[in-house]
Amino acid sequence: MTMPSLPMTEPMPGMPDRVTIYEVGPRDGLQNEAAAVPVEVKAEFVRRLLAAGLETVELTSFVPQKWVPQLGDAEELLELLGPEGLGQQRPVLVPNERGLDRAVECGVTSVAIFGSATETFARKNLNRSVAESVQMFAPVVKRALDAGAWVRAYVSMCFGDPWEGPVPVEQVVDVCLRLMDLGCDQLSLGDTIGVGTPGHVLRLLDALDDAGIGPDQSAVHFHDTYGQALANTMAAIRRGVRVVDASTGGLGGCPYARSATGNLATEDLVWALDGLGIEHGADLAQLVQTSTWMAAQLGRPAPSRVVRALAGG
Ligand code: HMG
Ligand code: MG
Fold it and tell me: What's the whole-model pTM score?
């Protein structure tokens, strides 16, 4: 029997013509890897992702090396990438003004701040309360916008938190409003530990819409811990979300939330979008080749189901 290499295309009512894939593999995908990945390999990973047609690729984080040693080579990576590493479609994470200074020094013009819907994760991930982290982000966003940069605001633990349990929708909306009120261009709703389900996603998107943040301003960022990432993404797209975060191969996690596993795999997303006839610009076969190559570098198979089906990996 030959396994199909592409799905049949059958459009579904209520779905858009196009979705933007926001690739987080080099950042979220690699921030949690036990194996040290040489910076040349990271640069090659980014080049392969771009060659596969992904347009928006989040590259790295400008955080202290002691907090995330895996991404301690941010400057070197951007240097190696050269002009390809710059531009509004190559965002990097910056938590504070020191991070922004480092990023600006490298010529970065697109940054992401990252808040938390819960107090416990704010403390663990940012060493601050939610209110103190908003205070930390305010000058970062102002200076970035004044300099003409594009700014994304992540909110983590939007559905559940490993220490606090279920997170009330109103609490998430409150943090989203505080970050978007700083003037950010885009919100990314993080299901850091992958516990969300489609009805919960719709309830959050409805509540945000009621509060003045429409689905056209939001991206979704699902980790696939419980196998819900793709179902949640489809619900969000149907509700009007047009930017979906995904990680090639399904790598990912968060060093400060051990229960976070890999992100929605870009290949799994692309298979679903291709099946629905939704444009996204990426080439599935090239993504699978990239994940297979990356798996060899990391010494473990890619978690993506589509990669396993297509590459036997
Ligand atoms: P802190 O220790 O409170 O920072 O960390 P500080 O301001 O007290 O500074 C301590 C030292 O670090 C000082 O140096 C600073 O200069 C230096 P010293 O005087 O001791 O020599 N420093 C820096 N150095 C380089 N770059 C910087 C920087 N900032 C300070 N940017 C901090 C506070 C926010 C920095 C820390 O908690 C941190 O970096 N946290 C980030 C952790 C992280 O990256 N987590 C993973 C990303 S979030 C995620 O994955 C979730 C997401 O995917 C969405 C989802 O899934 O939900 C986005
Ligand atoms: Mg994440």
Answer: 0.97
